[in-house]
């Protein structure tokens, strides 16, 4: 029977915020004596991107195709400690304490088609002249993005598009689309309400519209030269058969629940994440459909003004709420960093796996000891709150 390893962490779901301590014990059980060099614990956090492109280049013998492999990587945390140094490991059960501090600058875990930001705990039994025994525990690390700290997010969004239907000499008139959203930022699990106003001055009917919430990921490579590639994934969608006939005006109200999503990135890392709400108007006949889109910033602490009154009433008031989450240089730094960020008068969120995607990044440098390729990060969900119309 092979050796087994269990990770018992202070956060059972393996979700931590940047700056927190990862604590717990790791239980290693062996069934026979082993000759080893040592046993080491490690915490690793890194970003990796990789993709290939075909390039055609002209040479004296003609056109030739070359495959360029673009890569990028950055390490955010890499700490290790030796917990056992004897050369012989007798059969039995061993309990090793685990205690690592995540840097404040760690970005949020995410995974896309061409890269990921990944964190893991690793226990390695270093064995001479044999394959090492490596055990991994993937972690989710979240960089706190409190939407209340940016006043611009509390301002309603309004976007207007004027589209001409047809072209000269067969133009049938203009259509004016106005999209209104009460806030510029939301957290996963919230209900996003929207208002769509259509002024159809054309001779073409609008037979319906499609609403999509789109996640845009930009992957940045450093080698062999700087390059970027972008993916757009529809993470939520809905269709409406509401019509707006020619030479008429209509206004439609709708809502969409946001799925489990990574927060938008605010820095220029190897992976940048943005989100958009897009509405596509379906025109009758051979005319091309028209679209209107607005950026929606995703955070992991919702705007207080966007909360539903009923949800606020259900929460338990905090008489003396803890101070805002931060790290200081004082002696109580460890105790404050060991707590999750306070939610004030909000209920703590649940955590759910990121919405599934058809294609996910697989590390080409991975081996059989790498963490589970099926692992998906967990993100906070605020299904018990709502935005106000």
Automatic annotation (TrEMBL):
Residues 171-303 form the Arrestin C-terminal-like domain. GO terms for biological process: protein transport. SUPFAM superfamilies: E set domains (SSF81296). Residues 310-350, 369-389 are annotated as: Disordered. Keywords: Sensory transduction. Gene3D superfamilies: 2.60.40.640. It holds the Pfam family Arrestin_N. One of its GO terms (cellular component) is cytoplasm. SMART domains: Arrestin_C. Belongs to the arrestin family. PANTHER family: ARRESTIN C-TERMINAL-LIKE DOMAIN-CONTAINING PROTEIN-RELATED (PTHR11188:SF167), ARRESTIN DOMAIN CONTAINING PROTEIN (PTHR11188). This is Arrestin C-terminal-like domain-containing protein. The lineage of its organism: Eukaryota, Metazoa, Ecdysozoa, Arthropoda, Hexapoda.
């Amino acid at each position: 029977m092979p050796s087994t390893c269990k990770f018992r962490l202070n956060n059972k779901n393996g979700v931590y915020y940047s700056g927190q301590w990862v604590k717990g014990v790791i239980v290693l059980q062996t069934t026979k004596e082993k000759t080893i060099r040592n046993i080491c614990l490690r915490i690793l956090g890194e970003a990796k991107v990789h993709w290939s492109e075909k390039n055609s280049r002209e040479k004296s013998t003609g056109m030739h195709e070359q495959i360029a492999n673009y890569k990028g990587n950055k390490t955010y945390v890499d700490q290790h400690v030796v917990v056992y140094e004897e050369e012989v490991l007798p059969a039995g059960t061993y309990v090793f304490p685990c205690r690592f501090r995540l840097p404040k600058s760690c970005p949020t875990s995410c995974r896309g088609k061409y890269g990921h930001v990944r964190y893991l705990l690793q226990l390695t039994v270093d064995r001479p002249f044999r394959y090492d025994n490596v055990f991994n525990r993937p972690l989710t690390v979240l960089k706190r993005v409190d939407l209340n700290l940016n006043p611009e997010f509390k301002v309603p969004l309004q976007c207007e598009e004027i589209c001409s239907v047809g072209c000269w000499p067969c133009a049938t008139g203009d259509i004016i689309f106005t999209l209104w959203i009460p806030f510029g930022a939301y957290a996963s699990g919230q209900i996003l309400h929207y208002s769509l106003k259509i002024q159809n001055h054309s001779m073409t009917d609008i037979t319906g519209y499609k609403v999509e919430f789109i996640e845009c990921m930009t992957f940045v490579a450093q080698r062999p030269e700087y390059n970027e590639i972008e993916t757009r994934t529809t993470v939520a969608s809905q269709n409406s058969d509401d019509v707006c006939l020619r030479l008429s005006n209509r206004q439609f109200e709708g809502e969409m629940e946001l799925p489990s999503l990574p927060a938008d990135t605010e820095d220029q890392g190897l992976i940048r994440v943005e989100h958009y709400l897009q509405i596509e108007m379906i025109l009758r006949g051979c005319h091309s459909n028209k679209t209107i889109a607005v950026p929606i910033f995703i955070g992991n602490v919702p705007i207080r003004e966007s909360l539903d009154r009923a949800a606020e009433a259900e929460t338990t008031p905090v008489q003396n709420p803890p101070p805002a989450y931060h790290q200081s240089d004082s002696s109580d730094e460890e105790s404050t960093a060991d707590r999750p960020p306070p939610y004030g008068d909000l209920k703590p969120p649940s955590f759910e796996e990121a919405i599934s995607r058809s294609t996910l990044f697989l590390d080409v440098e991975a081996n059989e000891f790498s963490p589970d390729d099926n692992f998906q990060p967990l993100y906070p969900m605020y299904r018990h709150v709502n935005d106000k119309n």
